[in-house]
Specification:
By secondary structure, this protein is an alpha/beta fold. The chain has one domain: Rossmann fold (3-Layer(aba) Sandwich), CATH 3.40.50. About 40% of the residues lie in helices and about 15% in strands. It has a 5-stranded parallel β-sheet, sandwiched between helices. Strand 1, helix 1 and strand 2 form a beta-alpha-beta unit. Helix 1 packs parallel to helix 4.
């Protein structure tokens, strides 16, 4: 899968795990997008046909809904819900495994968003 990370998940450790899993990963740091607005992240990912991976659920669900109303297209949004509780939050390893599982499932990603926590 071609994945673009939101700032909140831009980690060398996660990038390494995703790449070892066979995914093509684009970091906002690598393309000069660190700190840009959420919509600009989504716009970049859509223009490059990348699935956006984020832990910023509320903002990106809202953006998805806005984009659907405006008939704009994106290549999918994968959301990791975190509660700042190490016992319940997904590890980077679990996130990478969930990305692989959702890719292997064949569910349509275009113009959709998924809760990765259900794909552990």
């Amino acid at each position: 899968m071609k994945v673009y990370l939101d700032d909140d998940l831009d980690s060398n450790a996660l990038i390494g795990l995703l790449r070892r899993g066979g995914h093509n990963v684009t970091s906002p740091r690598a393309v000069g997008n660190r700190g840009i607005d959420d919509e600009d992240h989504l716009r970049f990912a859509a223009a490059q046909s990348l699935t956006l991976l984020t832990a910023n659920a509320e903002d990106f669900i809202e953006l998805h809904e806005e984009w659907m109303k405006r008939q704009l297209r994106h290549s999918g949004i994968l959301i990791v819900y975190q509660e700042n509780n190490p016992a319940r939050d997904m590890t980077f390893q679990q996130i990478a495994q969930a990305v692989t599982r959702i890719e292997q499932s064949g569910v349509p990603l275009e113009n959709a968003y998924y809760n990765l926590n259900f794909w552990r």
